[in-house]
Amino acid sequence: AQSVTQLGSHVSVSEGALVLLRCNYSSSVPPYLFWYVQYPNQGLQLLLKYTTGATLVKGINGFEAEFKKSETSFHLTKPSAHMSDAAEYFCAVIRRDTGRRALTFGSGTRLQVQP
Amino acid sequence: GAGVSQTPSNKVTEKGKYVELRCDPISGHTALYWYRQSLGQGPEFLIYFQGTGAADDSGLPNDRFFAVRPEGSVSTLKIQRTERGDSAVYLCASSLGTSGGNEQFFGPGTRLTVL
Question: Do B108 and A43 lie within an 8 Å CB cutoff?
Fold first, then answer.
């Protein structure tokens, strides 16, 4: 069963505009939550993660995400898009209630930034 | 410091052949993961090692796939009797310890093409 869903396989924004990439999880126990970025022909790089504590998490390159338990969401945002943000973004989870340590990834969202 | 490295970066083989893919994790990382990423999809978990032993191999698709980590560092993913459907990017990741909140650091991947 799919435990993480990313709405929108492609998102296009103008340079300087707000970036919003959506992620929802489906487990009853909130999992560990991650956002990874993948640039063309490169490996995955961690942007940010939520494990415990403050629900608003700040990451690298000006990105942040907010864990909302009531909405089972962990959406990624950036106030002002830059051309260099064009990449594939993956939301991923590790469930807390199974003991497994494997990441389960969403299907990804490709972000395009228009000049 | 050095990140996760994977060799070869590209591998082209013929259907039915045997292939080995190598992963060198970050020094000191006890956990090592293999994932497979098909075109246009998020990575899918294959197997996870804690030290020398496979702690979770539930993602291996069938018995043609096997992985080892004999000394607790370098790992080799072995695929027998390759099929065209095995074509994908094979990603390796490593992490410190076994907490679900630990960051998994990814290598650049090996692109396997089965003709």
Answer: yes
